[in-house]
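I hope you will forgive my troubling you with a question about protein structure. You will find the record immediately after this paragraph.
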Amino acid sequence: MDFRHLRYFIAVAEEENIGRAATRLHISQPPLTRQIQQLEEELGVKLFLRTPRGMELTAAGELFLDEARNIRAVVEQATERTQRAGQGRLGRLDVAIFGSAILGEIPRLLLRFRSTYPDVKIVLHTMTKGEQIEALRQRRINVGFNRMVAPLADIAAELVTTEVLLVAVNESHPLARQSSVKFSELAAHPLVLFPTGARPNFVDKVMSLCHEAGFVPEVSQEVGDAVTGVALVASGFGVCLVPESATALALRGVVYLPIEDLPKHGRVDLSCLYREGDQSPILQSFLEIVRTHAAT
């Protein structure tokens, strides 16, 4: 028995007439009659009573019609879901995130993707840069988001956005009385740096900018992420350079000041990472959203 047998049987049962069913199926009557006879022989039961008016279902035929319709619905659903999966509209997307980026563009990207592809399940993972790259290679995630990623032969990176830097200071700090700061002013104040871990990273960016400004910063603490860094600022451990997205951390007692003389390269990137050559339909759908978002 194949799906064609079921389709032909349903048409005859619904039309109650071989001629009308053949017209509906765009075939001639003799092949349709043979298909029904083959189906009955395979099942070992009579599905129809032949009457002068046409075809009438037997009790077994009535039962088989219900089952055939159920099977047709399942097959149609499976076909639709498979097609949607092939179009990147159904399935699962594993996304790795880290640090302050989750406070800025990433939520907007994910919301846009979920609105466009509501049947794709998004699973988030918190991973450092090194963990993201390893997870991509092991196919445990589809994409990652991170900053300052060195070129890798097997990992592609697409720029999502760049962010200016600001200074997070405690509201009781002398700098908090100013509307902005000059970079050189940071030389007189201990810095909280983040993140620890694989290099190059944001710590290298901050140290490089300090050196360009003519000083080696006094490091108060080096911590794992922006949230901890800003929390230490709130606790009076020093000041902290942060990407613009970190200003979403509205911690009590912390203010964010722009830097007057921040050089043009005093920005940090946010990139979307994925396996080079990965042609997964869901990934391609997500990258389309990323590119559209980046362009606007």
Summary: The chain has three domains: 3-86, 92-159+272-295, 161-268. The radius of gyration is 32 Å. The longest strand covers residues 155-170.
